[in-house]
Amino acid sequence: MREQDRIHSMFYPRSVAVVGSTSEGKLGYELLRQMVGGGYARERLFAVNPRAQGAFGVPGRASMAEVGRSVDLAVVVAPPSTLPDVLTDCGAAGVRAAVIITAGFSEVGNAAGEKALKEAADRHGVRFVGPNCAGILNTHHALYPTLETRPPAGSVSIVAQSGAVGGVFLAWAKEFGLGVAKFASYGNAADLNEIDLLRYLADDAETTVVGLYIESASGGRAFMDAVEACAARKPVVVIKAGRTGSGQRATLSHTGSMAGADAVYDAALRQCGAIRVHTIEELFDLCQGFVSLPRPAGRRIAIVTNSGGPGVLAADRAEEVGLDVVEPSQAVKARLAEFLPPHCALKNPVDLTVEGTEDGYRETLLALLEGDEYDAALALNVATPYLDSIPLARGVGDAAGRSGKPVAAAFLPRQIVAGSIPHLEKRGIPNFATGERALAALAGMAASGESARRRGSAWTEDEDRPAAALLPPAVALEPGAMAWLRENGIPTPEFRFAATEAEAVRGCREIGYPVVMKVVSPDILHKSDVGGVIVGIGDDGAARDGFRAMARAASGQDFRGVVIYPVIRDAVEVLLGLSRDPQFGPVVAVGLGGIYTEVWRDVALRVAPVDRAEAEAMIREMRSFPLLTGARGQAARDVDVLADTLVAFSQLPFRYPDIAEVDLNPVFLLERGLVVGDVRVILTSEHEE
């Protein structure tokens, strides 16, 4: 049976067995209550436990063999030590899938017990989520084998490594009326994980938006493939926990899994077309926006409010999240002035004041949205107890329907405007808790629309990839590393290596004064820290003095000689870097270089390799990008060559698998071309040491 078919059996079982005690107060009892309360037919439910005890009219059986009919799904809450036998019993009875809620495995150090559980499942062809999970649900099949809240039916599906995080989302979905299609908490991911579930949901017609909570990714690049495939068909909104040091420590204790570098996760998710958020509120808001509103065609936002202060706060937040709060044109202002009182502010936000009316909201929103000046709007109503917000909701709904553009609402405080919210929802307008949250959701939707949903590749076909080779031993020293870079299409300056003073003088003459001289020693990594770099050597005497100074700088070290370069003038210094992430493998970076690298940390990351389009996106992502384009009268730099070099550089770990790290810093970016100023290569064997 195909894997997708087994997952389908889990979400659409013909019958379900709850395995474990169903005594009152036990988890099995609560699961049966959920299942029966959710409408799953009792005649397709069974309780399996040694006492053959049922509950809520569900019959009990002592074993799966005694059920007497085919069971597709087992929901297991039996003690941890019994689970291998439970899965053996399930497999013998033809059970295809299981949800293992029982805890007490790798999350508490019981890796051996988890391994035995997985081996038993594999022997008998049972696929499962868990252990240590909160169950699953499928609202369209009246299936609720979970300990969490039963939400209304809809089209949002949630995949959560943490059952509690998923539970909060489901509780809010019930409270605020957001429809959910499917929920899967996969816990320790001993078998089925987020990759399997994303692949399934990509093809699920009942799911239009996927929300994902992860603490670590299973198989980094396979995870990227699954996210990319799903995001190509429907929005994927992701919370990746463990962003900070303390968060990563909590992740280790919570799931027994290892969290990768957060910046790499951020890059990987961006490359795959997913939208990353950082809080459950953001996840909820963005899912609500996607199922309710059309996607904005761009980032230009109009804000219509009846209160100045909240309008200003909304405008601030809009700019913070990357929306454009542009002022209306004179033509639109003239149209607004035709029907709005003189005391209304006609800029953006448009402030209708507390006297704002149904017609005011309707006509203002239409005036702003019917042309091509704005892509979306926020209708902000901060009510007082004496005002009736229902007419305002009607006006907003009319304008949204006629304009066809996304209009988000923030009618608040909720207890005062409660009567108006159903009128908004009836017109398909989500009401957000605050204007700021509404704008963050619109920004996320706009970002999703801009995403190409593709992971750049440096090769068009697998056969184009060059054969892997070992790094030459010479790369351990800078002259050999420079020669290696040149062989692989990375521009380097002319250079000479000199092991003696006489060779140094001859090398300086051949390069042509003035020159730069640098110490060569395997024991010295940061040359400038020990006086191992001299810039501007202008004659033979200075060359001799420079060589002697390099020898003194390496006193007590393994001094091999010096490397000599021409002086590079009028360059902007950037860096290129390669490293290996434990989850995603080779990662490439570009950023501001030279001595400012560690100060400004202006670096863009991607999972390697990258193609030309992705390389260009990385360069534009740098905060210092304006320096490269000729800011404040400076000469523009050769960004095209930088992008080409970045593509070639990103291929190196695949040509040479023993690369652990490569640092090119600085790289001198010129008006035409670039050259590498310094290189350091670390092999995987050195990295492990």
Topology:
Blueprint: H1 3-11, E1 16-19, H2 27-37, E2 45-48, E3 60-61, E4 73-76, H3 83-92, E5 97-100, H4 111-124, E6 127-129, E7 136-138, E8 153-160, H5 163-176, E9 180-185, H6 194-202, E10 209-214, H7 220-231, E11 236-240, H8 245-255, H9 262-271, E12 275-277, H10 280-292, E13 301-305, H11 308-320, H12 330-339, E14 350-351, H13 358-369, E15 376-382, H14 390-403, E16 407-412, H15 414-417, H16 421-426, H17 435-450, H18 478-487, E17 496-498, H19 501-511, E18 515-520, E19 533-537, H20 540-553, E20 561-566, E21 572-581, E22 585-592, H21 597-600, E23 603-607, H22 612-621, H23 625-628, H24 639-655, E24 659-669, E25 674-676, E26 679-683, H25 684-688
Parallel strand pairs: 1-2, 1-4, 2-3, 4-5, 5-6, 8-9, 8-10, 10-11, 11-12, 13-14, 13-15, 15-16
Antiparallel strand pairs: 7-9, 17-20, 18-19, 18-20, 21-22, 21-24, 22-23, 24-25, 24-26
Structure description:
- There is one protein chain.
- With 689 residues, this protein is of the alpha/beta class.
- It folds into five domains: 1-131, Rossmann fold; 148-290, Succinyl-CoA synthetase domains (Rossmann fold, 3-Layer(aba) Sandwich); 293-450, 3-Layer(aba) Sandwich (Rossmann fold), CATH 3.40.50.261; 494-566, Dna Ligase, domain 1 (2-Layer Sandwich), CATH 3.30.1490.20; 572-688, D-amino Acid Aminotransferase, Chain A, domain 1.
- It contains 25 helices and 26 strands.
- The strands form five sheets. Strands 3-2-1-4-5-6 form a six-stranded parallel β-sheet, sandwiched between helices. The protein has a six-stranded mixed β-sheet with strand order 7-9-8-10-11-12, with helices on both faces.
- The longest helix is centred in the C-terminal third of the chain and has 17 residues, at 639-655.
- The protein is flat.
- The two termini are 45 Å apart.
